[in-house]
Amino acid sequence: MGISQSLDISGIPGGPVDLTLDKDDRTATEDPAVDLDNDGSADASYSGILRSGETATIETPSLATGPHTATTSPTAGPVDWTLDWTEIKALEDPSVSIDGNTAASYLGTLREGESATDPITLNLGSNNLSWGATTAGGGFSANVSWAEVSHTEDASVDVDEDGSYEINHVGTLSPGSIQTFDAPGLTRSTSQLGVATNNATEVAVEAQYCEVTQTENPTVEVNGHETSELGQLTDGETVQLDTDPSWINSGTNRINVSLGDGTLSADAPQSEVDLDYQHESVDNQTVQYTAQRWTERYNVSRTWLSDQTSASLTIPFKDTVLSIRDVEKRVGSNDWTELQSSDYALDGSRLTVQLGSINKNTEVGVRVNASRVRVNNGSIHVQEATEQGRKLDTQIAIDEWSEDSYIQLPQREDNLIAYAYNESWSGPTDEMRVTADGERRLRLPNALEGGQTRIATIPVEAAPETGDVVISVGQPSATEPKFVVQPGQTQGDDVDFTFTGAADGTDYILYSQSNGIVRDSGTAQSPLTLSDDDSDETLQFLVDEGEVGGPDDDTGGPLTLGNAPAVAVAQAQANPLGALLVAIIALTVLLGAYWAAKRRRRPRKGWLGDIASFVSTEVVLIGLSIIGIVAALRFNVLALPRPALFVGAVFGIELLGYLLLRYFGYFDWKIYGAASAIVAIASTQILVPEAVEQLLGSNALARTLPLVAAFGMYILYRAVEGWRRGQVTEIVVGGSGGDDQN
């Protein structure tokens, strides 16, 4: 590359000039630059010209480790360069791991003397640390430092110093964290608290309580009239104080509240109480109330003190009513008018009557006739009502009736079994269906429109646990009620039968007249509840260990050939000692008469002699002895436990049979063993029917009667056969000596 220059020559004007120029070529370098990282831009450069022999030293930026290519780019001229460097040790991307997981790291290069700080999380206990780097040029050191922070673990507090901890916190509590608990048992006398933690960690406990004063003997004074509640009111407790409307004055009324008796100390918190006081202006109102077992009647008159745009009157019935027969209204002196069903609404035991607009000081009367029974698909009217509080005995007339009609009876405190009697129609039958939720429906299947009947109850309640039960009453009794049980829509439902007329302290049994067994037993304690299921049978409450039957209770019904066994068993079950006494007396009389008849061929000694002969027989003596023992037990002269009586009775019967058979010479071990077994089963059935029922089923008596009858026939046959073998034919031949006469 050449450089041009301009020359100025001066001389004689017009004269010639000879000029010769000689030059020497010199080489130089202009603006040399070096690229070391091959990025196209100079990493080191010199601005200017370097002549031959001249040098320039330039510092370059730091070089990364690894190979590098140097590229020179001068503006002009050649260039020679020499690269000198000093090796510097450094770390690239160092990191620290805890238990194999990276916990801290630094992206970049750390030269000697440089450091980086990164926070890490240490676990409680031991931690295994390791470190590394992408490029480690020289030494590598890591310094882990931490500040120990103590946490509280599983803190517990004993408040009342009884050795058990009432407050427990499971887990750790970091410094500064607070947990709040209720402190049961903390009193004003508490002086210290027992504290325990896990691993002997520390915890601070602070107990706070607020001193309060209980409300005692609160008294409210209304215009000088006091009403109070004696005693203390606990926090949140509410009591209602009795007042009298006559205490209220027209105009201003003064209410004072006083608490305690004035002995509270000056530094104690003051007693406090919330008072909810209200009274309303009273309109003039009069109420006439009439109640019968099936009917409630109200005659209410009311006068409002101000105009009413939509007046209403609420009548609270004493019991839940099932239907409203009629509602009438009278305004002022006008006539009574019947209201439509849309003008009133019945909700359980509350009737609300809408009266419309009423002028002030106008008297409005409302008459309500409510029924505690509801007739389904029919109608009745009461001809003779039963007064409230008396036993139900109401006469009704049938207005409308159909096959599916029934009378729904009220659910009262005494849900007794109802029945119909004195029906005016032929073939009268009735039944009451009782459901588990207490609903009672009385059906009169053969009732006719225009007919009449009376409805009454027996002192028995039926309460099925599930489903329903159907009950009918044949001949009612108040002392030992009897009724027929049938299953309802479902069979096998358990039923509780409650005898409300049971005498306290008296033992009763629930006896099945149909099956001849005792279903349940118990002692009456106002009242008595015994249980069975809804199987088809006739049940009766009977006095246990007492007299059965009487002029009024019709125990067992009329005696017929068909029910004689059941009646006999019922009598024996209710009074086993009496039945045993009668049986032994009858047996003694029969055997004594038989024995006396055998001795009739002996010379007679008159009636006294015959009686002495009768009494002196061994059979009669044994029988009289047994009669004396049984009579002593029966009339409480000799008292023994029931199990002892049972065992003694069976053993006595067996012994008596053994002695009689041995005495008459008919003893046979086979016959005696079979007879003893039958006597034991029969005696057990009479005295403890539950035991035989468990072995032979519910119809144990019916199952054993054929066997007993067959064996009795066999005994009779053997007796007749033995008697016939014992007959001796005597032939008496008389004659006289010497003569042979015909």
UniProtKB/TrEMBL annotation:
Transmembrane segments: 577-596, 608-633, 645-664, 671-688, 700-717
Positions with biased composition (Polar residues): 57-75
Compositionally biased tracts (Basic and acidic residues): 20-29
Keywords attached to this entry: Membrane, Transmembrane, Transmembrane helix
Annotated stretches, region: Disordered: 1-44, 57-78
Designated name of the protein: Phosphatidylglycerophosphate synthase
